[in-house]
From TrEMBL:
Family: Belongs to the FMN-dependent alpha-hydroxy acid dehydrogenase family.
Gene source species: Streptomyces auratus AGR0001
An example molecular function term from Gene Ontology annotations: FMN binding
Key word Flavoprotein present: yes
Pfam families given in the database record: FMN_dh (PF01070)
Source organism phylogeny: Bacteria, Bacillati, Actinomycetota, Actinomycetes, Kitasatosporales
Record's protein name: Alpha-hydroxy-acid oxidizing protein
InterPro entries: Aldolase_TIM, Alpha-hydoxy_acid_DH_FMN, FMN-dep_DH, FMN_HAD, FMN_hydac_DH_AS
Keyword Hydrolase found: no
Keyword terms, alphabetized: Flavoprotein, FMN, Oxidoreductase
GO terms under cellular component: cytoplasm
Length: 380
């Protein structure tokens, strides 16, 4: 605070309490929560704290170049928005505000199949590349329609989420009987596949009942052929955490992998994403790009993930914090803070180009307090 005027947040984390103050408790806990004891939510953050940066000096860093090419498209920054359902829970304009914010940095956005605005409207508002995230619905005809619409609207890739054969045990959602308010809906899906989302039941999450009814848990490697036969877009798998799965995916010719544990919302106890990244990068051996999400809150986190071989990283909850706190401007500020912090970190570690970021930039060190927390109590 200066002279009683609230200061603009200087860090991404400062948006979390601002968002919490704006959102109904059930929505806040839906956004913020993880599965079970939330150990994986905490592990994602802690993993970033175990790496220290080995800065090089006497390097000309008068110009730092952050632009990159991702799945063939130019982006302004190796950073994008992770797929998240129902942005209208955070602000009235929903995904339109998000893609405008991302577009101001030429950053990619992965749009959830559970978006609360139509793909066509989102595409009309976007300036950065859009990718469409899919869940494996029992109703393949619905998937087929969604893919066709996304292609027609100019989406650039499909991202199949492979860590969600069912929803994780999200205690906060269950305790709050989380369900969608009447004015928010999965606007891209027919009513036939949106059952349960608006039904409140104490002690249980509507999303979990929805997933049990509509997500097909039999998804396996052989199903990828069907999806590939439906589209000419690149196919990225989201939710890979092991060398074994990464090697198999690369052998099958997927176009990219997102090292992700769904922000700790699926398997409680799953590996932290930064810890999984090196084995995945090694197993892929350059056959396709590797991306990461989970716990990215600082430019130095982005730097560490890029140094360990990620081509770009994606950010989840902080974008919703920004939207809830200040709509499009809040989301823009969250993303541009990460961008500016990344540029600072590159300059201060003697790396003017993204090509300079490699594992020699990092050393294992003691964990730091700044990386051990996440926001909000698991209860209440
Ligand atoms: C509120 C919320 C909704 C999400 N919805 C989806 C979704 O629809 N599809 C998906 O693949 N992942 C979804 N995720 C997971 C994110 O894509 C991403 O993996 C995760 O949020 C990254 O971690 P972070 O929030 O710590 O940045 C969601 C995450 C949150 C917080
Ligand atoms: C699969 C049914 C609901 C998913 C809701 C969005 C999501 O992935 C999340 O983490 O929340």
């Amino acid at each position: 605070m200066t002279g009683g005027t609230p200061a603009r947040p200087l860090t991404v984390d400062e948006y979390a309490p601002l968002a919490q103050a704006q959102l109904p408790a059930a929505t806040w806990h839906y956004v913020e929560g993880g599965a079970g004891t939330e150990s994986t939510v905490a592990a994602n953050r802690a993993a970033f704290g175990r790496f220290r940066i080995r800065p090089r000096v006497l390097v000309d860093v008068a110009q730092c170049e952050l632009s990159a090419t991702v799945l063939g498209d130019p982006v302004g920054v190796p950073l994008g928005v992770a797929p998240m359902a129902y942005h209208e829970l955070a602000c009235e304009e929903g995904e339109l505000a998000t893609v405008r914010a991302a577009g101001s940095l030429s950053a990619p956005t992965v749009v959830s199949i559970f978006a609360s605005r139509t793909f066509e409207d989102i595409a009309a508002a976007a300036a950065g590349p859009l990718w469409l995230q899919l869940y494996w619905l029992h109703r393949r005809d619905v998937l087929q329609k969604v893919v066709r619409r996304a292609e027609a609207a100019g989406f650039r890739a499909l991202v199949l989420t492979v860590d969600t054969p069912r929803l994780g045990r999200r205690l906060r959602e269950a305790r709050h009987g989380f369900h969608l308010p009447p004015h928010i809906a999965a606007r891209n899906l027919d009513g036939e596949v949106t059952g349960f989302l608006h039904d409140r039941r104490d002690g249980s999450s509507a999303l979990s009942r929805h997933a049990d009814a509509f997500i097909d848990p039999s998804l396996s490697w052989s199903d990828l052929d069907w999806l590939r036969s439906q589209t000419r877009l690149p196919l990225v798998l989201k939710g890979v955490l092991t060398a074994e799965d990464a090697a198999h995916a690369a052998e099958l010719g997927v176009d990219g992998l997102v090292v992700s544990n769904h922000g700790g919302r699926q398997l409680d106890g799953a590996t932290a994403t930064l810890d999984a990244l090196p084995e995945v990068v090694r197993a892929v051996g350059g056959r396709c790009p590797v991306f990461l999400d989970g716990g990215v809150r600082h430019g130095t986190d982005v730097l560490k993930a890029l140094a360990l071989g990620a081509q770009a990283v994606f950010v989840g909850r902080p974008v919703l914090w920004g939207l809830a706190a200040d709509g499009e401007a809040g989301a823009r500020q969250v993303l541009s803070t990460l961008r500016d912090e990344l540029e600072d970190a590159m300059a201060l570690s003697g790396c003017p180009s993204l090509k300079d970021l490699d594992p020699t930039l990092l050393a294992r060190g003691p964990a730091t307090a700044a990386h051990d927390g996440f926001h909000g109590p698991a209860e209440g």
